[in-house]
Structure of Methyltransferase domain-containing protein:
Amino acid sequence: MLKNALDILRCPVDFERLVLDRGEPEADGHILEGDLRCESCGAGYPIRKGVPHLVPEDAAIVDGADMGALQERTIERFGWEWQTYEQWGWLPDYPDVAEAQEKFYGGLIEHTHAAFWGKSLFEKEDLRPGDLVLDAGCGNGRFSKCASEMGATVVGVDLGWGVYSAFNNLRHKKNVHIARGDIFRLPVSDGTFDRVFSIGVLMHTGNAKLATQKISMKAKTNGLVLAHVYGKGLPTYEFLDKSIRYVTTRLSIDSQVRFARNMARFCRYLKREPWKFRLYQKIFPHLNLLPTEHHMYDWWSAPIATHHTLGEVGGWFNEVNCNVVRSNPNVDDAASDRNRRHQHAAVTVLARRKR
């Protein structure tokens, strides 16, 4: 943690300023171990492995979002994912292994850039030098990196243990701060950020509507807020997805990894001969296969994964005085069967905060 992060980070209980009680900076300016204290309420928060842990003691139930066993397992699964796949999305080139382009589909830094600009709906001019940007649910920090490259100062927050991977990946960047925090009580003040985004996270919180509205409060007046969630598919797809997830989410992590590995291997087998893959898609049009173990684990492991429509997400923003600026053009409530057939039919909404 860089000491100037305290200019932005706040106590998650009363949102007052934090002071450094203990800790000395390393040669690069980061404080790796120490303690923070709220100037107002006196609550203490540790700094571990360079990451301030700004999670309130009563985080089990925050503003109506019950962090029960399912939520704890979801956090555990994603924490394991981003520590295990720490370099996913950061690779400069394909490793020298068999089927590398299939096994590491989506894992290169160029894929991260494409995913960020494709999923966020931001235009390049939307992220300006000097902007303050919040990445709500930063995982291993790959999208925080993209925003920081535009000259913005980025705060990446996540409740999972992937924050350690994010810190390791971004430690060299002086315009990025990583903190562990709860999306329902983010450790920053309302009305602070020029841009706020959450990509692939809100639907795993247990209350996607509340989470979306909470992150919206962190934007300044006229600031932009981005929510990217899973889209709601056709009834057949929803039934199959829930049925498979009912089994996979109850497996141990080791068993989930084996399942993901076998699904990815099966996909690569089919794709060796295109006619086989086309036949599979005709027989099982509602289940999308990907050739990477990481993607299959990411999709099937989380116990909480809600699906939403464009109308829903737009309505969440309207309730907190945010006007929709752009939305995913491929998915809406009147989408064709084909658009809503597969799991990758996401809903993305970019909104502007009015006040």
The chain has two domains: 3-54, 61-232+304-353. Residues 253-271 form the longest helix (19 residues). DSSP finds eleven helices and 13 strands in the chain. Residues 60-65, 331-344 have pLDDT under 50 and may be disordered.
